[in-house]
């Protein structure tokens, strides 16, 4: 599927809304590398300062009680970010650490307009 003017406009609208109404968060991307000679696993972290749409409780239709559970949060990320969000990454929002458990991109044509990330905190558990 090709990218057309409508797709570009929808991506721009998503970016503008998140920029205007979003919250500042810190996103930690976990990077794992295996040394092919020693088999040793090296873990590092890349930090991004981004804006996200205000979080909301997970939509009950997304709950599968396997990966996504009642009590999880949904957070919308701009599709125009410089990295690909993945499960196992971390989101620091309002001083609370959330573990990302699933990521769902929403496409407009061939462009990712937004990512919905499903995250869970272990605080208070």
Estimate the mean pLDDT confidence. 85
- Kindly provide the name of the CATH class: Mainly Beta
As a percent range, the share of helical residues equals 10-25%
Largest sheet: 7 strands, antiparallel
Radius of gyration: 16 Å
Order of helices and strands: HEEEEEEE
Broad shape: globular
The fraction of residues assigned to DSSP E strands is over 45%
Provide an overview of this structure.
The chain has 125 residues and is mainly beta. It has one helix at residues 5-21, and strands spanning 23-34, 41-52, 56-57, 73-78, 90-93, 96-108, 111-121. It has a single domain (5-121), classed as Bacteriophage SPP1 head-tail adaptor protein (Thrombin, subunit H). It has one helix and seven strands, in the order H-E-E-E-E-E-E-E. Strands 2-1-5-6-7-4-3 form a seven-stranded antiparallel β-sheet. A hairpin with a 2-residue loop joins strand 6 and strand 7. The longest helix has 17 residues, at 5-21. The radius of gyration is 16 Å and the shape is globular.
